[in-house]
Write a structure and sequence with these properties.
Elements (H helix, E strand, L loop, with lengths): L1 H19 L11 E7 L2 E8 L6 E4 L2 E2 L2 E6 L4 E2 L6 E4 L5 E2 L4 E2 L6 E4 L6 E4 L2 E4 L4 E4 L9 E3 L6 E2 L12 E3 L6 E2 L12 E3 L6 E2 L13 E3 L5 E2 L16 E3 L7 E2 L18 E2 L4
């Protein structure tokens, strides 16, 4: 029953993303951004794209008002998008603004934007402390090292990034948000930093290709389904926790499973650091 509820939540999230941009697969229809009122101006609420529009520009203004926000699922399930440019007036990006963008190669941010920036195509807050969103088809070999300035990986930052094969967190990361790396199906290597304290709900769930998992001694909280997998390749020998489980607040079904059954959950090897 727990597994069914968890899968249901993941499916619901995918459905919301799909509804958020249902017209993105329509050929020949006009690409359109939709807006709603927001504090200080307008917010992008959804986007209808098409096959002939592979680049999206979030404008500086709409109908004479500044575009200040990109709402939850504002740009979602747009399979043809390869590039998103964010205008200078955007100061709020909801934590699930971008998801299910399988062909995205880059985020570009106007140099005058005071709240956000892009570094090598990856979207960050201007001060570099939060990684906001990662493009699934970022140029390179599929590996990524989170910069040392980052303290938080935002919710859905690596959502369904199937092209990501190796992720290494920088030494300053303290929090991984809910659904941050859900369904990174191609990821075979994950390196968590000593200093990491909190891993949110479904933080690394459905990362079925991982073969080993090492949780540092600094971790204090792992949310529901934090590392859940239905057919995990991780074994007890390759699943290492560097402190007693009694010292960690653990959510339900947080461990990977070998066959999708609670009884097949992989038990970690406890290797407490002296």
């Amino acid at each position: 029953m727990k597994k069914i509820r968890m899968i249901g939540l993941a499916v619901l999230l995918c459905l919301v993303c799909t509804v958020g941009c249902a017209a993105c697969s329509l050929f020949g229809s006009e690409a359109t951004l939709h807006y709603k009122d927001a504090e200080g101006g307008k917010a992008v609420s959804s986007y209808d794209g098409n096959t002939s529009n592979v680049s999206l520009v979030i404008p500086d203004t709409f109908e004479g008002e500044p575009v200040v926000e990109i709402g939850a699922f504002g740009v979602a399930a747009c399979e043809y998008l390869t590039s998103i440019t964010i205008g200078k007036n955007v100061r709020v990006i909801s934590e699930r603004a971008f998801c299910s963008l399988p062909n995205l190669t880059e985020f570009v941010v106007d140099a005058e934007n005071a709240a956000f920036k892009s570094v090598d195509g990856v979207l960050f807050t201007k001060d570099g402390t939060e990684l906001v969103a990662y493009p699934n088809k970022k140029a390179g070999d599929g590996s990524y090292v989170v910069p040392e300035t980052v303290t938080k990986i935002r919710s859905c930052a690596f959502y369904c990034c199937s092209e990501l094969t190796k992720l290494t967190l920088g030494s300053a990361v303290r929090e991984v948000g809910d659904y941050a790396c859900i369904k990174c199906s191609g990821m075979t290597e994950l390196n968590l930093n000593e200093g990491l304290q909190r891993i949110g709900r479904d933080g690394f769930s459905f990362c079925e290709s991982l073969t080993k998992l090492e949780i540092p001694a600094s971790v204090e909280y792992i949310g529901d389904y934090g590392f859940y997998a239905k057919t995990s390749k991780v074994t007890t020998e390759t699943f290492i926790v560097k402190k007693s489980l009694s010292e960690i607040t653990l959510g339900k079904s947080w461990k990977p499973q070998a066959s999708g059954l609670e009884s097949s959950a992989v038990e970690p090897t406890i290797r407490e650091e002296k």
